[in-house]
Every structure is written in structure tokens, then in C-alpha cells.
Amino acid sequence: MMVLPVSGAPRTVTLTALLMVLLTSVVQGRATPENYVYQRRFECYTFNGTQRLLDRSIYNQEECVRFDSDLGEYRAVTELGRHAAERWNRQDNLERERAEVDRVCRHNYELDEAVALKRRVQPRVNVSPSKKGPLQHHNLLVCHVTDFYPGSIQVRWFLNGQEETAGVVSTNLIRNGDWTFQILVMLEMTPQQGDVYTCQVEHPSLDSPVTVEWKAQSDSARNKTLSGAGGFVLGLIICGVGIFMHRRSKKGKKTTMKMGISKLLYKVARWTWTSPGFTVFQ
Predict the structure, then answer these.
(1) pLDDT tens, residue by residue, 50-99
(2) Per-state percent for the chain, helix, strand, coil, to nearest 5
(3) What is the dihedral of CA 179, 63, 44, 4, to 10 degrees?
(4) Alpha carbon of 170 to those of 35, 93, 131, 188, 257: distances in Å?
(5) Is 0.70 surpassed by the pTM of this model?
(6) Can you spell out the DSSP letters for 60-80?
């Protein structure tokens, strides 16, 4: 697991090793369960040119012993880690642990910086209502932002150019599992005819904010728009058929076409516009 830096906070890199091991010396004679998890977590904090290393030992989600480079030794966090801290505070072991500050916090940080800290993936943005409904009815407008990296992102809503802050609800960052994130930012609204809602996204991968608009339209206005678009497409198809036939006739070819004009137009006529409220004809 790697915890990446947050703007304005000290740089942090956490490496977690999950080891299924038997720690007889640590559990000190306790009945060891058949299955358990031992974690070794290295945390590096870089601030004002200095590095601090925390080496945490965690048994079944409970931290039991910790090395802090600022203190220069192991300290027991719980009674379970007392014996381990005493045993690990030998001089030769402490010298190796102090050297980890340079190996983990300086060397590994430089290796990971280009891959993790400087990686940039631009977000994809989509805006849609949570349900279909008429105007002047309460609804939820969803701005879905996905496939971006790093996780720092700002999503804002605007109505007719004015920022909306009331009625805005957001999920936490959601990990996609491929080093990208997604987030949903929703706006409660009661749309009026002609309203323009805008989702604006700012992200380190973008030179300028990305905006996606959603315009409030009545069903009749939307159907007229779709009908006009469908009629335009149908007109282009018929026009193309006419040009094709005209060119064939000019070439003087007498071969009979396998499909006559009537059959071709019949196939065109069966084309159906799939958008709501519009069908050319069938």
C-alpha cells in the first residue's frame, strides 16, 4: 500500500508488507490462532528537508511495537510488543534501522517519484439526471468524474453561470483498482425550461477546467429536436440514393440492379429512430 502526498501536508510514503508468519516471541506464549496477519509498515515523512521514519509492527490490525527515527529506538505500543522492543533495541539492530531512513525515505522516494507522484491521468466527465421526469419536478443531477489520477480534484456546479453550493452532495473518492479514481457529485434541482446546468472539474492533469453542460428541456421540445435531426438524416439518405442512381444512369449501364429503387426505399423506410418519442415510419 502506498499513501501519496496531500497538498499542503508533509510528504508521506507508506509501504506495507503482509506476512503470514509465526511470531512466537511476540505473542509470548499466547494461543496462536490458525490464521492471522502480521504487518510491517514503513512510513516516511519529509518536511523542510528532513526525513522521519516510522517502522510499525502490526499484529491482527493492532500496532504493538514501533521504531521512530526521531527517538532512535523501538518503543512498545502495547504490552504485546514489550518483549520485542527490548529484543530489537540491541545496538547492531538499531544501527541497521537508522540506516533505513536513507534507504527507504530518500532512495525509494526518488525511485517512486516519477512513477507515482508525477503521474497524471485526465478525468472523463459525464452529466445526467438520476431519473427521467418532467420539468419543474424535483430531481438529482449527477456529475460522474472517473479515470483520473492523482486523487486531488475539485468538482463544482453552476446554474446559468452562477455557482451552486446548496444541495450539493458528493461521494468520497472511489478507487477503481487500476491506480485511478472516480467520484460522483450530485446537485438537487428543480429544472425550469431553458436552465443550463454546468459541472466544472479542476484537476492537476488539466491545463484548464473541464466543463460539461446539461440543458433543461420539456419532452415536446426534446422530441421536436430529435424529429428534426431524424428527418435531416433521412433526407441525406434519400439524397444519396438519388445521386447514386443519377450517376449510374449517366454511365449508360443497362444491367438490372439486384435491388430496385422500391426495395431500397422500403429498407430506408424501415429504419427507426431509437430516441424517445420519434419514429420515422415502419
Answers:
(1) 889 999 999 998 999 999 999 999 999 999 899 999 999 998 888 888 88
(2) 30, 35, 40
(3) 20
(4) 38, 48, 18, 11, 61
(5) no
(6) TTEEEEEEETTTTEEEESSGG
